[in-house]
Amino acid sequence: MAEVKIGILGAGRIGKLHATNLVNAVPGAKVVAIADLFMNDEIIDWAKGLGIEKCTDNPDDIFKDSNIDAVFICSSTNTHADFIIKAAEAGQHIFCEKPIHTDLNKIEEAIAAVEKAKVKLQVGFVRRFDHNHKKVRDTVASGRLGAPHIVKVCSRDPEAPPMSYVKVSGGIFMDMMIHDFDMVRYLSGSEVTEVSTFGTCVIDPEFKKYDDVDTAIVMLKFENGAIGVIDNSRRAGYGYDQRTEVHCEKGCVQVSNDLNDTSMISTAEGVICEKPTWFFLERYNNAFIAESVDFVNAVQNDTDVPVGGIDGLMPVKIAMAAKKSLDEGRPVKISEIK
Amino acid sequence: MAEVKIGILGAGRIGKLHATNLVNAVPGAKVVAIADLFMNDEIIDWAKGLGIEKCTDNPDDIFKDSNIDAVFICSSTNTHADFIIKAAEAGQHIFCEKPIHTDLNKIEEAIAAVEKAKVKLQVGFVRRFDHNHKKVRDTVASGRLGAPHIVKVCSRDPEAPPMSYVKVSGGIFMDMMIHDFDMVRYLSGSEVTEVSTFGTCVIDPEFKKYDDVDTAIVMLKFENGAIGVIDNSRRAGYGYDQRTEVHCEKGCVQVSNDLNDTSMISTAEGVICEKPTWFFLERYNNAFIAESVDFVNAVQNDTDVPVGGIDGLMPVKIAMAAKKSLDEGRPVKISEIK
Amino acid sequence: MAEVKIGILGAGRIGKLHATNLVNAVPGAKVVAIADLFMNDEIIDWAKGLGIEKCTDNPDDIFKDSNIDAVFICSSTNTHADFIIKAAEAGQHIFCEKPIHTDLNKIEEAIAAVEKAKVKLQVGFVRRFDHNHKKVRDTVASGRLGAPHIVKVCSRDPEAPPMSYVKVSGGIFMDMMIHDFDMVRYLSGSEVTEVSTFGTCVIDPEFKKYDDVDTAIVMLKFENGAIGVIDNSRRAGYGYDQRTEVHCEKGCVQVSNDLNDTSMISTAEGVICEKPTWFFLERYNNAFIAESVDFVNAVQNDTDVPVGGIDGLMPVKIAMAAKKSLDEGRPVKISEIK
Amino acid sequence: MAEVKIGILGAGRIGKLHATNLVNAVPGAKVVAIADLFMNDEIIDWAKGLGIEKCTDNPDDIFKDSNIDAVFICSSTNTHADFIIKAAEAGQHIFCEKPIHTDLNKIEEAIAAVEKAKVKLQVGFVRRFDHNHKKVRDTVASGRLGAPHIVKVCSRDPEAPPMSYVKVSGGIFMDMMIHDFDMVRYLSGSEVTEVSTFGTCVIDPEFKKYDDVDTAIVMLKFENGAIGVIDNSRRAGYGYDQRTEVHCEKGCVQVSNDLNDTSMISTAEGVICEKPTWFFLERYNNAFIAESVDFVNAVQNDTDVPVGGIDGLMPVKIAMAAKKSLDEGRPVKISEIK
Fold it and tell me: Keywords of this protein's UniProt record, alphabetized (chains A, B, C, D) (predicted)?
């Protein structure tokens, strides 16, 4: 099978992460170029070390390069949709970090461009590739437990982000819980039809300044009759708390966190076990590799990507509905979001 | 300290359970009489075996017996409030199974009678005496984790009750989730101010006939700024699933189920562990004893009971608000319930 | 079925425990008398409270009482064999605390008397009635895992006993590990043929004064080809550590400890779980009741007792072999012990 | 820091594993050559894919290459000592797979050559780099639990090796338990002074043909007064069972296995959890990388390697003593092995 030549857009933390994985751990991938508006010597050195030949501060150098088969869009959120359109027009396959955009029209425009160009678009909902959540999904999807009744997701970050980030993050629903909205669709195998939100500021009153909350619970109804709930906290303190559970007709499947180690230290003072792995880079390390492997395979074999355009669109709609529910103090149907 | 002489009202499953515990496992208690509208030879033999001398089909024989210090009201729900009033008027201390009544006026009337008579009234929210839930509460109440942010309760019965019971149960919120409404007040140390409910019939469509659901999620807001969520299923299949969790400022305390044993059987097919204990009689066996011990102690020492009249009233209000939220498709404030 | 009238010999901790269980929790049992060489007012009051009518300082008052169907021998170890013989001669069924004696001839003499009188003799190896160890045994005995290959028992007391006790205890093998010798026979369903011992004094050098060790490991060979190992410590510090494991042809069954509760408290400092229950009274509380229930049932129904004379004899032989192995620095065959 | 240029000896499973790790995951390492007596096109292609330029069937091409700073000896056991000597004489640093040799004289000769040449020698006891076992060691070494009393290691392979391998393996003690002999030295921080072995053939009688056992328990005494025990099975069936535990003065530290995922599936039939990871490639994947990182760091910074020549020698002596104990039916002191 032919090697997939890849250009990376954005050399921030997530761009570097994908580049490194593609070089070291993804068979069949070759990273040939990287673009960043703020290209500098540090990035150039790092790219050299990985054997990436072309470094540029002009994204168009990627889209115009007929040698490039696929792009990884790892730039700031507001550029995602436009870059998708440009790549699609250039006939390049696309891996795009979430969210595609925070404006539904832009998302739909991007998806339309992808469909017209008949290129592949995979959205970076990395948690689907985690061994634990995948086990929940596979168990539910196998049908062995019967139909899902209750879908539960708990997601807590180890530490609250700086206010400089909160300001531009899009809020807890669009920035953080969006992963969980993807997760409930993935686990239940069904679309969300309605949400109801309770939120509170108990970690830091400053979240209020930005019309945001730091702690939130969202209830969900699904097309298939199931109901669900997500709880989010911007600060767990003890690490990255990522648990999912689906209760079905014949029983329940649930997963807890990966721990730093399996130790148990027993003394007169108590029994001490290890904490969850610290944050998403530790917890989803292998999942980041797995999603890239799947993308490259889909390109090489011309098969479907595992997370497509619709999977990029729906969580944004649910996030909008969740915020609207919080603001208006009432349940909101997804069909109200247009 | 003087022995507390006790009369039992109702010789059904729960009346027999309390009688047996009082006789065998509660120091300072003496069961002297039992009343049941359907008194029969089987009950009389059973009472004899426990050394209970007086058996009657007339509840008034209990209230009129000046030898009796306290009563355990274990009769059908619609009799609770009236029996409380009668016992209070007779100067007898009262342990009453939950709920006090499904009509708020009756509850308030009963509480007024108790206050007027200056007798003790303890309501049978037995889960507060479970070693696991108590550990969550004590950890939160100690303040070592800071203020509570998120309160979570999962409660699932092993099997759905027969439809004959569903018909008269008062519905999932008044019959089943009422325990969880008590639990969130107990764990958070704060009053519930608002709820929002999503419910569904996925176990048995017949629940709908009785204007009921078999699976429900209720979100809650608390006076202290915390938010919470309860999920209930009428049928877990694998046993009695009773887990609680409070996430606080500095960390999280959670408890899982008691298991039949701690075994782990590892084979090529998988690793098999034990199921949770089957139902409330198994899980809350020791808690039933503990609540009676506390009641008898409170009577003997003239100290406060651990679960008082207000604790009987509030969960009923929350249950009513939860049902109203389900019916009207909107969040409901507890202050709306009058 | 006729009530079994029971006399208790010895009103120490274990005698009181059995008496209380028989009165409160064992159907069909009636404790009618208790004997203790140091009978006093405190014991008499306690016995009254339980409804035990006869208190005496003369054991013969028990054996001579034709009203008594069965005895519980809870007196000091050196009296066990003689009391068994006396009870047998009186035609009374016998429950005897372990060990029967530390002299093999005395044990055999006692067993002979029991067989001659055709009464029942149950030995108090209470751990067989623990829900966890029983699950290991039942799993192995079911044959679903195939033949046992490796049998492992870990047993650690929370605190070292006082030296006054160590002096008369018979040593770690006869006093403490004897339970584990019973356990390996129970779990494997096979007889021990050879042992090899390593022991050390690391908790308190004073153990050496009494020709004892405080920490010991004993390897075992079984008739059925399996091998096994027991480790003992006189001081765990964190509670009563009682774990068993059998690895078989097709897999492994293991049990861990019962915990005080199932709590998990997660903070930045670590994750804290609960300790094992403190000591044998907490851990084997239900097992003490279960062994008495089984004994009373066997007497009432004239069926076999679950732990018979041979089960009293063999662990003593193994304990002797283990000590001999420690002393002589070589493996010792059980057949050498006579 | 200068890049460390590495030659690999042996292109079997373990040689390929190290080469891949060094290329993809070990900063500062560059694999420049690989030698294998049976060099072929498949190996050459694989090496090309990793960017390894030189492929040879003559080991001397490695030792004579003055460009090479260090070698990884991954060839068959009987070549290890000679290759160590050749590399040392060439002034090359050495990473050598375990065991160095099965003849003590050859090991000592190799160590002498290393010391004379003042090169580094690291032995491939990879389990020391596992996050779990390392946590046990670090906890013990920190002194927070006081002195070690009991050291326990359980090690079971998922499946028995083919008889063709058993024949040349050196036996269970030299081939399999040698890792555990290293582990007990590592965990206890003390030297083993005496062992006693019980072994049995219960998996496959054919092991006997090769003077071997398939299931074994070895007790150990340590210089510091602690005692320990290792149990080994050639076939667990459920995966790679690798647990360690050290009980100390003030408490116990233990680790269990890494699992495939953290799932718990609860149904009426039981609760199913995941199995341990399948075998050493899965369980010790990260540990293999970590040991190479440490080796390369030690070479670059001229610091001590974490597992030196004495760590290669001692486990071989203990393995010989364990086999002698099995053969002669008596405990054997390590000082007897010469």
Answer: Oxidoreductase
